[in-house]
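Predict structure. Chain length: 231.
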Amino acid sequence: MSRTARYDQGKRKKTKQKQSAPQPTQPVQPTAPQQPVQNAQGFVKQKRTHGFLSFLVGVVFILTLVVRMTVLSGTFMEGALQTPTVINRVHTEVASQLEAKNLPTSLATDDLIKAVLKTGTRETYAGESLNFNTASIRNAVQDDVNQQAASIGIAGTTASDAIVNLISGQVLNQVSANYHDDNLTYFANHIRSYQTWADILLVVSGILWLLLMISNHRRRRARRLNRKQAA
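Prediction complete.
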């Protein structure tokens, strides 16, 4: 074998050895986990939805509670109507009517007007129509005026009975005139149904709000656990 042939044969062996030698593998880059990111994004969206819904239901519950404890509460309205502004307005109008007839204005006291307003409001919220001139209120007013008339010495006569009836009528008429309004009458006639609907809305919104708060608490707890496990 010639020198050239031996050189070619050795070169081919070296080439085969290089090809058969194991090539170094490139390190595999770890891929970022996609599923946890998607889960986190879904959790944030659910959290925002549940948080807004919980806030909305809470607002409905609180507003309904405020209305039920104020406008739809007979006890509250009894006190609200007995303000100095209301009492003074009615008393001024009654006194002017009594002065025009040369009758003592002291027979129509502020306490009498307060009693009329309180009784009328209580009966209205108990389901009665808005009417301050009922038999029970009229009798109470006449008793009070009789007591005031006796204190100034004009009771026990036919004239005094006429005066009592006149003053009682003036008090009831002026109170009714200040509160007889179409919208107010409509509200008074439907007060019981409004109270019922408010009670139902309170129960439903209260239960739903409680369930949403429990759900939000569990979701926050689950999120904290996922963070601890990821760490």
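Summary: Confidence is low (pLDDT under 50) at residues 32-38.
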